[in-house]
Specification:
Chains A, B: InterPro entries: CBS_dom, CBS_dom_sf, Mg_transptr_MgtE_intracell_dom, MgtE_N_sf, MgtE_transporter, SLC41_membr_dom, SLC41_membr_dom_sf. Chains A, B: Homodimer. Chain A has 453 residues and is mainly α. Chain A is built from 22 helices and 6 strands. Chain A is globular, with a radius of gyration of 29 Å. The N terminus of chain A is likely disordered. Chains A and B meet through α1, α2, α4, α13 and α14 of A and α1, α2, α4, α13 and α14 of B.
Chain lengths: 453, 453
Amino acid sequence: MAEAVRHDKTARQLRLLSDALDSGRLGPVRRLVNTLSPAEIGNLLESLPKAQRTVVWGLVDPEDDGEVLLHVGDEVREGLIADMDPDEIVAAVEDLDIDDLADLVEDLPDTVLDEVLKSMDRDNRERLEQVLSYDEGSAGRLMNPDVVTVRTDTTIDVVLRYLRLRGELPDHTDHLYVVSRRHQYLGRIALQSLLTSEPNMPVNRLIDDEQPAIDVHESEGDVARQFSDHDWISAPVVDDNNILLGRITIDDVVDIIREQAEHQALGAAGLGEDEDLFSPVPRATKRRLLWLGINLGTAFLASSVVGQFQTTIAHIVALAVLMPIVAGMGGNAGTQVLALVVRGLALGQLGASNVQVLIWKEVRVAALNGLMLGLVLGLIVWAWFGEWPLALVIASALTINLLMAALAGVLVPVTLKRMGFDPALAGGVILTTVTDVMGFLSFLGLATLVLVR
Amino acid sequence: MAEAVRHDKTARQLRLLSDALDSGRLGPVRRLVNTLSPAEIGNLLESLPKAQRTVVWGLVDPEDDGEVLLHVGDEVREGLIADMDPDEIVAAVEDLDIDDLADLVEDLPDTVLDEVLKSMDRDNRERLEQVLSYDEGSAGRLMNPDVVTVRTDTTIDVVLRYLRLRGELPDHTDHLYVVSRRHQYLGRIALQSLLTSEPNMPVNRLIDDEQPAIDVHESEGDVARQFSDHDWISAPVVDDNNILLGRITIDDVVDIIREQAEHQALGAAGLGEDEDLFSPVPRATKRRLLWLGINLGTAFLASSVVGQFQTTIAHIVALAVLMPIVAGMGGNAGTQVLALVVRGLALGQLGASNVQVLIWKEVRVAALNGLMLGLVLGLIVWAWFGEWPLALVIASALTINLLMAALAGVLVPVTLKRMGFDPALAGGVILTTVTDVMGFLSFLGLATLVLVR
């Protein structure tokens, strides 16, 4: 319900913008767009069909171009970059932070990338190359090398004077990092404690060395989990020798958490999280076709099971009427278990030590539901077709399929994970294949045994 | 794949813990548990079956009890509280921040709540009552009334002296808030600028009044979106008269984003995001039963369509074999569109102005896929059953059902949203009912028209 009462600022802007675009006068559109933050502009661009998107993109203040590109999905981004001149692209990206630039690099045309690298000073170019040397999806790719460090052998007063000289600090600086002569990470000092301590206090009395540094090779999923487990705003990144390399900030972590959520929601339907709502028809068709093709294959598998029982069905046509119920209910019950298990795996809550307990719990739940729903289903079928053996067959088949669904709901994702696949992506297809096949097999098989004489 | 290479710290801890528990010696378990942060302990408790959970919960350092309770789902929390004495509960929660306490209040037994209220000083009790007076899911419930404010008519130097006197600042303080005599919000000053400015600078030269304050009645979804659009660490909350009431911090926003993601992933399977992996069997059974009951109803709806064509099926049994393919493929195609549209709606990207464009895009995608997959399916059916009219019928039925799936994939969630329902929850059931009914109707209907003479 919270979703429903949302003020829907974007939807409102969209309506205003759409009216302005329809009127054909671009002045008001430009004014409207440039009252928004880059993230809001990005969201707005994603919600526009291709033609309008190009028009609005042309009206965005060039100063915001780089930030906007950071806030749209890969597919939309490609399209926006394709609409820009090389000079525009260079101008847009050259002022970005190193970690943000690293995020964009692979979407830039090679010639443009060369220009960007040439326009950077040597220091920054080296920093960018360092960030790019780490794997995508690792802490190294998320970090910003721009950090403020201090040494232990000094006082607050000296630090304060240094900060005043330095002027502005990097965004989201909540701690200064204390390093050794060899730039090894020793701990951090909160800006807060700088403000609330006496000026003559030595720095080493204020060091907080409780926060562990993040290993540069750690996965971004682990980074996100640590941030949310410990309520961090920023965290230092170090290499294998504990040398301080940079800093990860919460804003990038929030983006990762959002992406993970989208990855799971869209991945289960066979879509990438960067899918553009308004992708060109040929591209969207091609991508969906692959997924539907896989599903066609599994559908044939289930059909071939039904095919084995054509004689039985020819005898008792009611079986054809009822068989989708058994298969479908198994799919629904299994999907519930799958959803729970996928979440448990993502949170690291499921391992060898408790999978058996979970299976035993789910099997009991399935047995109870199978008995109760089987009773209801049996009674309805008896009332509909007036044959109690048929009612008995469907009630038993439902219970069997719910049990199979419970087993598959736990074992399919756990096995996928163990084999190194993402259970959120492939789990659903495999699960419903199991429940379809087992649903048809148990129902039509039992019917052949019991009803056909 | 990122998921697969995760270090799975929790899973590792779980294994260690499980071994320690099995050995029956609780000393090592206690030591292991108390090296973890409250969030990690919460995650660990969620991953333990009930009996082990009670043992481990008894070993947690009482100082961490309150924080741990904040980091588990509602269902697990209830169980943990049920294991505690009233005195323990009071001790656990009385030191929590006001916003966190507000989060727990409704799970506390009434007698315990009275004790907690009695143990608080009047100021804090009034603050808690104020926070509780706002709706759940609103900004008012998220805010912490503990903020540091300064006035305009002073200098940095005075502020710095005030901060040193005050000592520790509330967690995640990155800005001080500037208020008028009547406590109206005027703007904020970054701790950074306090550190980098000259001491004699007047406060009003440093005020940043660009960040809009959050309305206390705003929904938590809107709050989360603003935080991630603007990369905020904290934001002021005001009432209708612009009086500063409190402050929301990014750590609570991260929790909301995670909850929203879980709500969507589990909600689509008819589960609440607070579902305990190891709920007691009777409770889990009851909850699943409701969902499966709804699905049983929709399954009968689809079956009754098949029931209308029993004579046709008795003629041509191959129809029974093939009909699940048409229905199932429609469900898969529709689910893809649904997933895209639900995301678009959640981001506010879809409104009256662009729904038509989207429908037109999806209809073209469905038509193309319908033709191509229909051709493949038709060829396979022709090869299998050797009858080209049957092949033609199934190819046409598939195309029709994919078109219906595209329409339903857009219109079902958009309509649900317009009616004030959460499209992520009910969308899937309604969609697959549409695609099942239309799949059976188009395939068996066409077959009756074309094949039965």
